[in-house]
Amino acid sequence: MAASWLLVFSLTLFQSLVMNLSSEGPFPSATTIKSWVDKMQVDLVTLARSASGVDELAKIYTKYSDLYTVEANNARDLVEIAASSIEKLLSNRSKALVLHSVFILLLTGHFTPYFSHLQCK
């Protein structure tokens, strides 16, 4: 909420500066406009940082740094492991769906197994 008030205040200040300067004299110089743009940029960065919570995240990271470790990893290996795991899960799911379908067809009598001509004793 404070961040939105900061933005409103900055924009209002900017508007009042433009209105006052333009009503009193010639168009503001490039240096003046550049300083306004720099101020607006600082205000927008401040607003974005407070709205996104990145500063709070940095504080939490620092406060609890003793509870975790940060290690380098090989992104290619991680992707390969994830892809392999996904392939296995999909394969198992496909097998389960086929078995489920066969089971349902056997129960309903709509499926005749390959060895149905043999009689069991």
UniProtKB/TrEMBL annotation:
Keywords, comma-separated and alphabetical: Membrane, Signal, Transmembrane, Transmembrane helix
Transmembrane segments: 97-115
Protein source organism: Gopherus evgoodei (Goodes thornscrub tortoise)
Signal peptide residues on this chain, from the entry's feature table: 1-23
Domain of life where this protein originates: Eukaryota
Name of this chain's protein: Voltage-dependent calcium channel subunit alpha-2/delta-1
